[in-house]
Amino acid sequence: MSSTLRQAGEPVGPSGRPARQISQLVALLILGGAPVLIYFWFILHFGVNVPFQDSWNGTIPAARAFANGTLTFALLWAPHNENRMLVPDLIQAVLAVATHMDEIVDMMVGAGLLVAAVGLLAWLAHRSLSLPWIWLIPFPWILLSLVQVENTLWAFQLAWMLILFLTATALTVIEVAPRSRSALAVAMGLGVLASFSSLQGLIIWPVGLVYGLSRGWSRSRWISWVCVGMVSTGAYAWHIGAVQPPPHPTYALTHPVLAVHYFVELVGGMFVAHHGLLGAATLVVLVAVALTSFRDPQWWARLRVPLALILSGLLFDALVTEGRVPLGLLGATASRYTTYNLLLLAGIYLAAVAAVRAIHASPDAAVQSATLKVRGLVLAATCLVVLVQLAWGFPYGLYQGQVYFVNRSIGAHLLLNYRHESASKLGLYLFYPEGAYVKAWAPVLARHRWSVFSK
């Protein structure tokens, strides 16, 4: 006799599973998979195959060297402003030769890395928080929001998507084998790859340390992690060269009000409008979630996934604030900064949901109803913030996608006719303000039949 009892007459699927469960599974797959399909559609619909901004002096020189058989470690190791991009430069050089430098392919690869990272993080949340999958439906909608249009439609930003994928993979390795030395070595290897993908890759070391400690790392393991992280950071910074804008390590300290304002604007950038107000509201909700969720040391360990997401977002914003606050507040709302703040918002959401569900699941009769009400209000505020972001983010992304498509299409037309176009015009649409650089490198693209010249 089957151990699973069913009511008489209940329809059953071919695998013996009740039809209701199958329909729920299909609904979950559709609702969870919809943002993935929308994200890829967005690239195919609005992406334009033309190099833009840093792709000119970042990707193209490495791609030409690889095509000519002259690519060296020194070229890959050379800093790109404040970034060492050895890993993504190598990947994009190979892709350029294999696809005639089709920028759409790079965008799709970046999207694939981001989607894979979202999938791994969702699985980690399901495993560590014991959340039913229905509570995780908003997760991909948040992290794949079209508000991050600049990262989505700019092939050069594959580097940040790679970092997110490497970070999610490292956390997954730590999660499934926290006491394995080989797993620790793999996680540290992933950390090194992330470190030499961009400046933001260094965030993996403090995030991984907190995650490892929450998984019960011994002293030798966390010391090993810290040592490899310090060596990687030191190697990254060694002879980094000139940085634009020039670093001002004490600027944020001497201008604290401006620095705090910039930080809040960064957080609020994912809301499109009222950045400062909604950024401040998000941080208030974060404080409320922290006060209601992270007070218990046992919960500090259980909430390791939302904690990793929140820490990643806050460290990213601190890093950008330190480096960009001298340029003024306007740059804080750039859409390329929204990706890490979407991580922050997703972490807040997961922590709020887990806190409320913990009360429902608690066998302790002493749990007061007042605590449930407080955490319920915090969850409601969190969901409101999430809904506001989704309601504004997707329409904004669609509008900006059209703007990007028009501007890049103009740039592609100008590049095809580079011999007859002025350097200033080429710079305006392709690599501001370095139009002369575009004029000098356009023949290289034409000779290799890359990008717009491939047809």
Describe this structure as you would to a colleague.
By secondary structure, the protein is mainly alpha-helical. It has 20 helices and no strands. It is globular, with a radius of gyration of 24 Å.
Salient structural properties:
455 residues, mainly alpha, 20 helices, 70% helix
Question: How do the strands and helices of this protein lay out in sequence?
Answer:
Elements: H1 19-46, H2 54-68, H3 73-77, H4 86-99, H5 103-129, H6 138-143, H7 149-152, H8 158-176, H9 181-195, H10 204-214, H11 219-237, H12 251-254, H13 256-268, H14 275-293, H15 297-302, H16 304-324, H17 338-361, H18 369-416, H19 423-429, H20 435-448
Helix pairs in contact: 1-5, 2-4, 2-20, 5-8, 8-9, 8-10, 9-11, 10-11, 10-16, 13-14, 13-16, 14-17, 14-18, 16-17, 17-18, 19-20
Helix content: over 70%
Question: In terms of structural class, how would the helical and strand content be classed?
Answer: mainly alpha
Shape: globular
Number of domains: 1
Helix tally equals: 20
Q: What is the percentage of strand-forming residues?
A: under 5%
A few lines on this structure:
Helices cover 70% and strands 0% of the residues. The chain is built from 20 helices and no strands. The protein is globular and about 75 Å long.
